[in-house]
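In this section we walk through a basic example: taking a raw amino acid sequence and producing a predicted 3D structure, encoded as discrete structure tokens. The instruction is simple. Fold the sequence below.
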Amino acid sequence: MHGFYEGEAAVTAEFTLSPEDYAKARLLAERQLKPVTRPWVRAGMLITASLLFLAILPYYSTRYGNIWLPLALFLLFLASAVWAGLRLPKLEEAGLAREYATDRLLLLKATVSLYRDTFTVVNKYQTFEENWVEYTRCFENRDYIVAVGGKNYPLLVMKKDQMTQEQREKASRCVENYFAGRYKKV
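The resulting token sequence is shown next.
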């Protein structure tokens, strides 16, 4: 259990995450940790590559007498950019939702309690306790508070819709105080 010096929990709330909630929260964390995984960053890189093929078009046509290869590569990279910007995010989200839906324990209602140095997640069958020290980053947007790291519980997701206004403020303040420079409000 939590340390004897911690006293009462700063926030205690019950959550039931749907697979879609988990997927959105995990993508929020991944895209904040690795900007290259953001859809429009990927699309921008592919558009840049396609423009390079368009830029070598005059040289290629004078050197080799045709324009088909650079033009085909330009169109291929441009189509890939559209796919990476529009279709790939939906596929990633669906894949993460399927991954979450296969774990029956994660689908259960859980009670999350935040303490000064630890947090606990209790559901019908399990109790997890982790120290904040084991977590590397924390991200918050208008829908979720997501802490990333931990050995046994690698992604702590708190859905703000299922919290009262007071609980939201306390939870936000708690993680902001603990994570300090590693906390980002998106």
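Looking at the output, two observations stand out. Strands lie at 11-15, 110-114, 118-122, 127-131, 135-140, 144-149, 155-159, 183-185. DSSP finds five helices and eight strands in the chain. In the next section we compare this with other chains.
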